[in-house]
């Protein structure tokens, strides 16, 4: 009996690992973590029906552990979070800019992303957006409303044709108030961090 329940837990654990990897490495050809989990359990139930029975002799510990695995593995990201619908790669006449926020402050206000003089979108905490621009030097601004205008920050960057650029706004609190800056981020780091963010569509997907 212990061996059969061990097989069940091993199968559930493998499904959990696959689900977690699916959160960070999404693929348009792969099912969602919830679908993958349910498929694994369904196949296990058909092939080994005795494994799915938990008798009273096993105690409540096994039942509780299985319920925890079910609750943890069946969860998935909110529908609007993460860069699931990755945009079309830029041509050599374009630059694809990802911009996201990582805020560690108590402010209720949100900055608005501007590229040069064009307003892109207002970004709440833990959100991201993307748009296309033409190659060349650009000024990327995070502009706050008048009450918090002292927090306005920008970065100058020379974008190359065909480039996918990742920029993030970081805020934190210190002895001098809210510290903030915009910085470039490596793609592999940005993909993980954007995975927990909510997508905000820009007003214009292509900026001249």
Question: What is this structure, in a nutshell?
Answer:
The chain has helices at 2-24, 33-47, 59-73, 187-194; strands spanning 95-104, 112-115, 118-122, 127-133, 136-143, 153-159, 164-174, 177-184, 198-199, 206-207. With 208 residues, it is of the alpha/beta class. The protein folds into 2 domains: 2-73, no CATH class; 95-207, Immunoglobulin-like (Sandwich).
Task: Annotate the secondary structure layout.
Layout: H1 2-24, H2 33-47, H3 59-73, E1 95-104, E2 112-115, E3 118-122, E4 127-133, E5 136-143, E6 153-159, E7 164-174, E8 177-184, H4 187-194, E9 198-199, E10 206-207
Parallel strand pairs: 1-7, 4-9, 4-10
Antiparallel strand pairs: 1-4, 2-3, 2-5, 5-6, 7-8
Question: Key features?
Answer:
208 residues; alpha/beta; Immunoglobulin-like; 2 domains; six-stranded mixed β-sheet; four-stranded antiparallel β-sheet; 4 helices; disordered N terminus
Can you describe what's shown?
It is built from 4 helices and 10 strands; from the N terminus they run H-H-H-E-E-E-E-E-E-E-E-H-E-E. It is of the alpha/beta class and 208 residues long. It folds into 2 domains: 2-73, no CATH class; 95-207, Sandwich (Immunoglobulin-like). Strand 7 and strand 8 (177-184) form a beta hairpin. Residues 1-13, 15-49, 54-59 and 61-84 have low confidence and may be disordered.
């Amino acid at each position: 009996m212990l061996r059969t329940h061990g097989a069940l837990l091993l199968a559930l654990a493998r499904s959990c690992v696959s689900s977690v990897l699916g959160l960070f490495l999404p693929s348009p050809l792969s099912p969602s973590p919830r679908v993958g989990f349910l498929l694994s359990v369904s196949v296990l139930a058909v092939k080994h029906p005795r494994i799915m029975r938990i008798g009273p002799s096993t105690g409540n510990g096994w039942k509780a552990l299985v319920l925890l695995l079910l609750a943890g593995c069946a969860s998935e990201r909110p529908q609007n979070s993460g860069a699931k619908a990755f945009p079309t790669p830029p041509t050599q006449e374009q630059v694809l800019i990802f911009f996201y926020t990582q805020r560690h402050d108590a402010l209720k206000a949100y900055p608005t992303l501007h590229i040069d003089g064009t307003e892109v979108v207002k970004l709440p905490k833990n959100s991201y957006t993307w748009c296309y621009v033409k190659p060349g030097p650009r000024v990327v601004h995070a502009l706050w409303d008048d009450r918090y205008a002292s927090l306005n920050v920008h970065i100058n960057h020379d974008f190359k044709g065909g480039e996918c650029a990742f920029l993030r706004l970081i805020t934190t609190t210190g002895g001098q108030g809210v510290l903030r800056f915009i910085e470039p981020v490596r793609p592999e780091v940005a993909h993980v961090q954007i995975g927990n963010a909510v997508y905000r569509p820009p007003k214009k997907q292509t900026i001249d």
